[in-house]
Amino acid sequence: MGLGAYIAVSAVLFAIGVVCIVARRNMIYVLMGIEMILNAANINFVAFNRFNGDAMDGRMFAIFVIILAAAEAAVALGIVLNVYHLFESIKPGDADLMRD
């Protein structure tokens, strides 16, 4: 399997993530879209590392992004739970106090 296949999978995953963010029916979908975009970046890091040589740069960046995504997911889910507690909705448009 060549580099083009990895890039194609990454591009499709990135596009699905962007669609999830733009559609934004609720905050959970937005978080899932962000995670898909980060995973698309990880696929690119590892694929370019595989086809560029034996250096560990791509794999180390991917591990760093995975750690960053885990921390982001924990903080974001805490924020979503707090927003749900305050507004009883997880739609992004409902959590706007300045709109009224």
- E-strand count: 0
Number of helices: 3
Report the helical percentage: over 70%
Rg is 17 Å
C-alpha termini separation: 55 Å
List segments where confidence is low: pLDDT < 50 over at least 5 consecutive residues. none
Structural class: mainly alpha
What portion of residues belong to β-strands? under 5%
The residue-averaged pLDDT reads 88
Q: In the CATH hierarchy, what is the class?
A: Mainly Alpha
- Give the domain tally: 1
Morphology: elongated
Note the main sheet. Answer: none
Order of helices and strands: HHH
CATH topology label: Helix Hairpins
Query: What is the second-level CATH architecture?
Result: Orthogonal Bundle
Question: Could you walk me through the main structural features you see in this protein, from its secondary elements to its overall organization?
Answer:
- This protein has 100 residues and is an all-alpha fold.
- The protein contains 3 helices and no strands.
- α1 packs antiparallel against α2 and α2 runs antiparallel to α3.
- The mean pLDDT is 88.
Write the layout of secondary structure elements.
Elements: H1 3-23, H2 27-52, H3 57-87
Helix pairs in contact: 1-2, 2-3
Keyword list:
single chain; 100 residues; mainly alpha; Helix Hairpins; 3 helices; 78% helix; elongated
